[in-house]
């Protein structure tokens, strides 16, 4: 008998990104830098760009929203960091991401959206 595993859309997207070789998980340090989880590498906002992002809305509660950023650093390292929206957002992540060059925004400007 197989156990059914209900994966959230966030987990499904992460699994797909892992298959594509985007396997690094990032965090924000107390100093406000993007860091690999092992702390071996860290980056300023100027050394990072947003390659893609995914928004997720909770099924049972629409206010339960999250965003997953796909990032690339100046060294070519690709990885992800996620944050909640609204009341539960992480101020450190939000402040860092506001300073990062967002390719998605640039693309929106060119597509007329």
Q: Alpha-carbon distance between the termini? A: 49 Å
Mean pLDDT: 83
Q: Helix- and strand-based class?
A: alpha/beta
Largest sheet: number of strands, sense, barrel closure:
7 strands, mixed
Number of helices: 3
- Roughly what fraction of the amino acids lie in strands? 25-35%
Organism: Pontibacter ruber
Protein name: Phosphoribosylpyrophosphate synthetase
Helix-strand layout with pairing:
Layout: H1 9-19, E1 24-28, E2 34-36, E3 42-43, E4 48-57, E5 65-73, E6 78-84, H2 91-99, E7 101-102, H3 103-111
Parallel strand pairs: 1-6, 4-7
Antiparallel strand pairs: 1-2, 2-3, 4-5, 5-6
Protein name: Phosphoribosylpyrophosphate synthetase
Organism: Pontibacter ruber
Q: Features of this protein?
A:
disordered C terminus; 7-stranded mixed beta sheet; 7 strands; 3 helices; single chain; 34% strand; 26% helix; Phosphoribosylpyrophosphate synthetase; alpha/beta; 113 residues
Task: Explain what you see.
- This protein has 113 residues and is α/β, with parallel strands linked by helices.
- It has one domain (9-111).
- It is 26% helix and 34% strand.
- It is built from three helices and seven strands.
- The chain has helices spanning 9-19, 91-99, 103-111, and strands at 24-28, 34-36, 42-43, 48-57, 65-73, 78-84, 101-102.
- Strands 3-2-1-6-5-4-7 form a seven-stranded mixed β-sheet, with helices on both faces.
- It is globular and about 40 Å long.
